[in-house]
Specification:
- The chain has about 600 residues and is an alpha+beta fold.
- About 35% of the residues lie in helices and about 20% in strands.
- The protein has a six-stranded mixed sheet with strand order 4-3-2-1-5-6. Strands 12-11-10-8-13-14 form a six-stranded mixed sheet, sandwiched between helices. Strands 20-27-26-23 form a four-stranded antiparallel sheet.
- Helix 5 links the parallel strand 5 and strand 6.
- It starts with a helix and ends in an 8-residue tail after the last helix.
Length: about 600
């Protein structure tokens, strides 16, 4: 018998009553606190029906709420039974503040300590400090107790990420981290994010749909050795030999036991309070150990790519550009006929990428939005929302892939037929912001937040803006959304450094009508400027795909902007044409012809 949302909520409340719990936090998270989780960990989706990438629910005895950000408010109202769950935009009120309004003094708030970080938990404690709230870490997750048909955890074999793509032996990475641990007098560091573990050991896996990683934990010691906690059936004999002498392979379920052992030895252990489950801190501290709260030491190391990683990313982007260009040609040809829909477009783009043997999987779920759906920033097409790509629509495609040597994330917005003066104006202002960021020169020590205004300036001049960041960090055959760097109007204090990769993606969205975004990836690079008094940096654009000239209002572009676009399109044609079929090659030549202002 299938349980309905009210059935699930009633059973959950019965358990809360038995445990004397006044509030239960149900996040979208697993024990690795990553962006992507497996079906085994989709507790929020199972309980509420909401399948967005971010959100959480708070359950009270008489009230239940689902908290989502601005990307998902519309989606949540369509997926969730709003008669039992109140949809709350986190921009209006945070979960901790909402709880402060609804709890009586002395109430008990329960949470799964494997699904919450210490940083997140502290935000609740600060908001509720005047109410003497009791925070109760659960030994058993209450949702799991009523989720009878819960899927089994994925257990795919891991494989080596070759040195020619990784660029650095795992032993060298261990040496660097061990040295850092000795400098702060730490005995070990706990690594919990799957992308951190896989980067460190030069391994990859397929436990997640859009993330080429494996579910695993690690403890790195100041002796240049490490323990890897993983389901042992994932490990081949070749990999065991590869790790021999440096990495001890231990059962995944023994991770907590090993943390407690560190505590019993009274040693100092580095744990990241922003990325690690709070249970890791409990396990060390409650048995007598000392936790040093510092950032995951792999984060800044993997953020700055080495030459092998950068070359792999460049190669992957040329292949991906050929796939995307083939797709764009197809949409431009077939779209005006009126028979294409968003789902067909998604399938065609995947097929274009799959033609390359180096392609492994999508780097995220493709955003394929036409007309009004394009105005939904993180739109996810489904049979219920699928729309025909109509003549005279604007169509937005945001997609990417993981290849053996690199990862991509690219957005192109194209006109299907005629365009309006307003649409051309908005598109051109987004393009001006894209060019301004791509051509920016800035001193060493500059943060992404300091550059963000460049991408918004042309929109601001006519009272327009967009409600998302301008750029996120990008991983190399890892998470396509990677920190710590980003370009955003939200303050970020991480300086941009050579080798970092970010997206450049300004946009504009007119609700109910159309959406525009132009996204390419860029590498931070050092610049040699004669007589410069500071070390200066700039960007190298590595995404190659045509930008639709049918949407450009030429009079809004300066001569230098036109030159940038013409130079970019010439490079697009030179790099991609050898990989294209004759018909697509001819089309690309036509749509990348130089623009010239009329006299």
């Amino acid at each position: 018998m299938t349980m309905t949302s009210p059935d699930k909520l009633n059973q959950l409340r019965q358990l809360m009553l038995q445990e004397n719990i006044d509030a239960l936090i149900v996040p979208k998270a697993d024990e690795h606190q990553g962006e992507y989780i497996g079906a085994h960990s989709e507790r929020l989706f199972w309980l509420t029906g909401f399948d967005g990438s971010a959100g959480f629910s708070i359950i009270l005895p008489k009230k239940a709420s689902l908290f989502v950000d601005g990307r998902y408010t519309l989606q949540a109202t369509k997926q969730v039974d709003t008669s039992i769950f109140e949809i709350i935009p986190v921009a209006e009120i945070s979960g901790p503040k909402w709880l402060a309004q609804h709890l009586s003094p002395g109430a008990k708030v329960a949470y799964d300590p494997w699904l919450v970080t210490e940083k997140e938990l502290n935000s609740y404690k600060i908001a509720l400090k005047d109410k003497n709230i009791i925070f109760l870490p659960l030994e058993k997750n209450l949702v799991d107790q009523i989720w009878l048909n819960r899927p089994k955890k994925t257990c795919e074999p891991i494989y080596l990420h070759p040195l020619e793509f990784a660029g650095q032996e795992f032993q060298e990475k261990l040496k660097i981290i061990s040295k850092e641990l000795r400098e702060i007098q730490a005995f070990a560091a706990v690594i919990t994010m799957t992308e951190s573990v896989c980067w460190l050991f030069n391994i990859r896996g397929d436990d997640y749909s859009s993330l080429p990683t494996t579910s695993a934990f690690a403890i790195v010691y100041n002796t240049e050795k490490a323990d890897l906690f993983i389901d042992e059936q994932k490990i081949s004999e070749d990999i065991r030999q590869y790790f021999k002498g440096f990495i001890n392979i231990k059962p995944f379920h023994s991770f907590e036991e090993n943390l407690k052992a560190l505590g019993l030895h009274k040693v100092h252990v580095l744990i990241d309070p922003a990325t690690a489950p709070v249970q890791t801190i409990y396990a060390v501290e409650k048995t007598g150990g000392k936790v040093i709260r510092k950032d995951d030491p792999t984060i800044p190391l993997k953020a700055c790519k080495n030459n092998a990683e950068l070359e792999g990313m460049r190669r992957a982007h040329i292949r991906d550009g050929a796939a995307l260009t083939t797709f764009l040609h197809w949409v431009k040809k077939e779209g005006p006929k009126g028979h294409l829909d968003e789902m067909q477009a998604t399938e065609k783009l995947l097929a274009c990428r799959q033609r390359f043997s180096e392609f492994k999987k999508l780097s995220f779920s493709t955003i394929s939005g036409t007309g009004p759906n394009g105005a939904i920033i993180h739109y996810k097409v489904s049979p219920e929302t699928n729309q025909k790509i109509a003549p005279n629509d604007i169509y937005l495609s945001d997609s990417g892939g993981h290849y053996i040597d690199g990862s991509t994330d690219v957005t192109r917005t194209i006109a299907i037929g005629e365009t309006s003066p307003e649409q051309r104006d908005r598109f051109t202002r987004v393009l001006k912001g894209h060019i301004a960021l791509a051509t920016s020169i800035f001193p060493q020590g500059t943060t992404g937040s300091q550059l963000d205004i460049l991408a918004r300036h042309a929109l601001w001049q006519v009272g327009l803006d967009y409600a998302h960041g301008t750029g996120h960090g990008v991983g190399a055959v890892l998470n396509i959304h990677e920190g710590p760097q980003r370009i955003s109007n939200v303050p970020n204090f991480v300086s941009l450094k050579p080798g970092m990769i970010l997206s450049n993606e300004p946009g504009y969205y007119k609700e109910g009508e159309y959406g525009i975004r132009i996204e390419s990836l860029v590498i931070v690079k050092s610049l040699e400027i004669p007589k410069a008094e500071k070390k200066m940096l700039g960007f190298e654009t590595i995404t190659f795909a045509p930008i639709d000239q049918a949407l450009i209002e030429l009079s809004l572009l300066t001569d230098s902007e036109i030159k940038w676009l013409n130079d970019y399109h010439q490079e697009v044609y030179e790099k991609l044409s050898p990989l294209l079929e004759v018909e697509v090659q001819k089309w690309l030549n036509d749509v990348t012809q130089p623009l010239k202002k009329k006299l």
